[in-house]
């Protein structure tokens, strides 16, 4: 359109200038028309040329108008196609947009994940360092406790050794001064002879056999107790060994002996099991005969002092 308007404007200006020039020249040369045929021919040619220019302008104008109509139709067709394309591809475009957004989110997450992992790693490392420090402190405290326990155990062991030495000295002292009223030396794991000689009633079966010589039953019981191959014990409810009353030899002893004699045999068996005595070598123990238990160190010392005083008075 801009080209068309420029072309039309130039054509009109050319025609106007031509007519003005022709008119002025014609007026000036009017007296000489008949005399100048060559000039008339020239003017005729110029008029025909102007007509030709006007015709070309009109044809150019029509061509420009047709071109404008075609351009408008093309713009309209383009708009229709764009609307149709939008309507057809809206869902596809929307899905593509969603996929792109998801891809962007994944990329952002991937970019953010190393940062998060690095922060978590730093936190874990700091916590691990704290745990290591706490563990080191606990190890040091544990080592201190172990050292203290070892020191206490050594002290207790020394005290126990001293106590055992003192008890052995008391036992030797009581062997020299056997005049204490209730504390004395007992041979652990040996069947007591008292029930076999004093104030005990025998069963009907063994009365005739042992009345003349009660030592026979005592010797028999002691040999049986000292037999290393005989172990009449069984596991108890509290994981401690107890006497197996159903043992064949125990049943026979219970039938042959009185209650006191049988109790003396059971006591000797328990003592041998407790002190882990093997063979015929008993263990000497400081004993409180009044209360039938092990005597304390203080009781042994008091007994020695009492015996020493009695010996001194004599």
From TrEMBL:
<dbReference type="InterPro" id="IPR045177">
    <property type="entry name" value="FDM1-5/IDN2"/>
</dbReference>
<dbReference type="Pfam" id="PF03469">
    <property type="entry name" value="XH"/>
</dbReference>
<dbReference type="InterPro" id="IPR005379">
    <property type="entry name" value="FDM1-5/IDN2_XH"/>
</dbReference>
<dbReference type="GO" id="GO:0080188">
    <property type="term" value="P:gene silencing by siRNA-directed DNA methylation"/>
</dbReference>
<protein>
    <recommendedName>
        <fullName>Factor of DNA methylation 1-5/IDN2 domain-containing protein</fullName>
    </recommendedName>
</protein>
<feature type="coiled-coil region">
    <location>
        <begin position="64"/>
        <end position="155"/>
    </location>
</feature>
<keyword id="KW-0175">Coiled coil</keyword>
<feature type="domain" description="Factor of DNA methylation 1-5/IDN2">
    <location>
        <begin position="186"/>
        <end position="313"/>
    </location>
</feature>
């Amino acid at each position: 359109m801009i080209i068309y308007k420029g072309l039309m404007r130039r054509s009109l200006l050319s025609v106007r200038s031509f007519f003005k020039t022709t008119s002025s020249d014609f007026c000036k040369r009017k007296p000489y028309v008949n005399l100048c045929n060559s000039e008339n021919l020239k003017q005729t040619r110029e008029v025909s040329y102007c007509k030709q220019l006007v015709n070309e302008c009109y044809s150019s104008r029509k061509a420009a108008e047709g071109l404008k109509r075609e351009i408008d139709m093309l713009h309209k067709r383009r708009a229709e196609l764009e609307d149709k394309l939008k309507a057809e591809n809206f869902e596809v475009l929307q899905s593509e947009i969603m996929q792109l957004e998801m891809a962007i989110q994944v990329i952002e997450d991937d970019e953010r994940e190393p940062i998060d992992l690095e922060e978590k790693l730093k936190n874990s490392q700091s916590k691990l360092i704290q745990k290591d420090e706490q563990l080191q402190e606990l190890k040091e405290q544990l080592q201190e406790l172990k050292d203290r326990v070892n020191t206490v155990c050594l002290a207790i062991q020394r005290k126990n050794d001293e106590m055992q030495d003192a008890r052995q000295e008391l036992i030797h002292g009581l062997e020299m001064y056997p005049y204490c009223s209730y504390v004395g030396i007992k041979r652990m794991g040996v069947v007591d002879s008292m029930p076999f000689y004093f104030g005990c009633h025998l069963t009907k079966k063994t009365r005739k056999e042992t009345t003349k010589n009660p030592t026979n039953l005592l010797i028999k019981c002691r040999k049986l107790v000292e037999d290393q191959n005989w172990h009449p014990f069984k596991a108890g409810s509290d994981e401690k060994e107890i006497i197996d009353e159903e043992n064949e030899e125990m049943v026979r002893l219970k039938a042959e002996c009185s209650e006191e004699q049988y109790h003396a045999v059971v006591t000797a068996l328990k003592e041998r099991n407790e002190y882990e005595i093997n063979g015929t070598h008993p263990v000497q123990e400081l004993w409180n005969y009044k209360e039938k238990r092990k005597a304390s160190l203080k009781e042994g010392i008091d007994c020695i002092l009492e015996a020493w005083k009695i010996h001194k008075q004599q």
